[in-house]
Amino acid sequence: MKKSVNSEHQEHHQKDLQKKLLKAQRLEITEHIIYEKLAVTARGKNKKILSDIAAMELDHYNFFKKLTKQDVHPNKFKIHFYYMLAKVLGINFGVKLMEHEEHLAQHMYVHIIQHVPSAQKIMEDEKNHEHQLIELLHEKKLDYIGSIVLGLNDALVELTGALAGLTLALQNTKLIAVVGLITGIAASLSMAASEYLSIKSEKNTKQNPFIAALYTGMAYIGTVIVLVMPYFLLSNPYAALPITLILGLCIIAIFTAYSSIIKQDSFWKRFAEMALISLSVAAISFVIGILIRTFIGIEV
């Protein structure tokens, strides 16, 4: 009886291990195809790096295939999803998000290694060599991420503050929207000009001052349009203001998520910092709006 229980336990354990091996095998062949597809469209150094990683993932797949003695089909949805993500938001973003997901599956690899010690090399490849190759990937657009941050930060801080102040001072949505939009457009041109002159004055930089200015201005004006939109759509300024603040927080969350994946930073720390600054300026401006309306007596 005891022997039978042990046999059942061993069989269950073997099935569980086989299931994990097949899952790891499918992960490796899926990532091999993604890297291979990205390598086809990449150029220069990036093409070689992606091809090297694709070859490494194929080696990992073949290693697991020898253990499972089975072929597995790749995850087609995942292939299309990460490929499109990389094409739209950049190779660095797509690849690093994919690697982040792989880190979440590391407990599976740890379990496999306990029973298949030779799988340790797979873990070392994933952690060391593959990570080093990913860090070598370079996209020109990432050289200008600082310019995008500058435009977003300034627009969020200045416009949320200005709109909060105007809400109390003017109390007319259409007028607030027009004043906010004019202010935002003027500020975006000013920021773009400042970024152009700043980059041009730097001697040791690969950035094109015109492109840096364009990124800054586009990030600024795009943020302005989103923040001002509720005032064009609603008639009650006190209903428009909280929606604007929520939209501001959404912009902060989206960009923070993007940059935290690219730079491997803490999402919550950066998000809390940007959100606190924007909301604090909005609160101060709101109070200033009350004071202006009370003591100057503006009526619209």
Explain the overall architecture.
- The chain is mainly alpha-helical and 300 residues long.
- It folds into two domains: 2-138, Ferritin, CATH 1.20.1260; 141-295, no CATH class.
- Helices cover 85% and strands 0% of the residues.
- The chain is built from eleven helices and no strands.
- It has helices at 2-41, 44-68, 76-89, 91-104, 106-115, 120-136, 145-170, 173-201, 209-233, 237-263, 267-295.
- Helix 2 (44-68) runs antiparallel to helix 6.
- The longest helix has 40 residues, at 2-41.
- It is elongated and about 85 Å long.
- The chain starts with a helix and ends in a 5-residue tail after the last helix.
- The model has no long low-confidence stretch (mean pLDDT 82).
Helix-strand pattern, N to C? HHHHHHHHHHH
Largest sheet: none
| Shape type | elongated
Given as residue ranges, the uncertain stretches (5+ residues, pLDDT < 50) are none
Number of strands: 0
Mean pLDDT value: 82
Distance from first to last alpha carbon: 90 Å
Rounded to the nearest angstrom, the radius of gyration is 26 Å
Structural class by sheet pairing and helices: mainly alpha
Give a short overview.
The chain is mostly helical and 300 residues long. It has helices at residues 2-41, 44-68, 76-89, 91-104, 106-115, 120-136, 145-170, 173-201, 209-233, 237-263, 267-295.
Helices and strands, with pairings:
Blueprint lengths: L1 H40 L2 H25 L7 H14 L1 H14 L1 H10 L4 H17 L8 H26 L2 H29 L7 H25 L3 H27 L3 H29 L5
Helix pairs in contact: 1-2, 1-3, 1-4, 1-5, 2-6, 3-4, 7-8, 7-9, 7-10, 7-11, 8-9, 9-10, 10-11
